[in-house]
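Quick one, T. Sequence first:
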Amino acid sequence: MKDNPSDILSAIATKTCVKIVEALGSNNVKTVFVAGSFARNDIAWFNASGRLEIYSDLDIYVVISGDSDLESCRRRARAAASTILLEGEDFEIFPSMDVGVYTVEDLLAQPARPGTVEITDSHWVLYGDAGIPEMMRKQSNARIDEKEALYLLENRLIEKERLFARNWTSPSPGLERYAMYTAHKTCMDAGSALLIYLDLYSTSATERLSYIRNAAEYPEIQELLSKDDLDQIERSHQAIEDLQQALQKGDASLGSVWDSVEAVVLALWRGMAARLFQVGDKHSWDELVRTRCCEGDIAGNFRELVVLGKRMELGWWRSLFVGARNMRLSPLDSLRLSGLVAVILERREEGTAALERGFIPHLDRLSRAFGHSTGGIFERARELFEKIN
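Structure tokens:
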């Protein structure tokens, strides 16, 4: 294996592409390309006494022909990618690969969000038609919808739950460093969320962190957040600023850093959601969560459940049954929000009793309906979200 992170990820991506094309058949695959931090040449890594720890993941896009079975191709592509080892004698890649499978139509229908607006300018084609990523120019020039700010924060918290589901009885120094990097990334994405909400999104990491660092100076942010929230953001940024120095000294406190970052994410999510959904009492976590999960859109939620039932191979009649019993809230939104709700409850935020009475039982029923009945509710929800997302 090569001796720098870019070469390591390049070799892994190439092997993965070969496996995926073999699994799906070359006639069914239009193109395979990599986007994200690797394509931007923005790889996060650490040299641990000669062994490279890589903290950036590989975002692999697989575009198939329109007459292929999308769900079957998705399962086979991800199964093929899972056979690739992400660790060697002189390196370890900590995050798992993110493999998305689309038809051309599905790919071009993706909303403008941080991951898609960069594809046209930052991608690396591994196989097939190099023109397909260029077709996403519409996304790169589009305005990002404010609700994508919520989506970004929700995804960061479910990633945090996934990370802390690993072995923390005796975590390796590398895993602790990766957790610290993830806290830093989450703080940067909190800055991204603010910029999206204010319609000022920038791919510049420096600019994103600047909005977190100087949040109290912006009138539009002062209107969004309370003084306590702004104070917490300032403390969180200071924790992130101290992070690298603490890591070098070996005395970084993982718990205190994550505590600060979580507080910022919750404050931003609550403030933005209350404005977007016009919920008067922004402390009403239950009302905000229910609104975010499309409560009342019975027809839309039912359709989504039936599609997910097919994806999980429940069969037609079983999918209809699951849809009829769980259509009060959007299943995808509910599962994605499980990370946020888990943090709310862990931190004993004010006014969570209604969440425990309503949303938690719903999450329990939903995960059981799709065959996830062992383990804690949040663990089941996270695993189900990873399977169907």
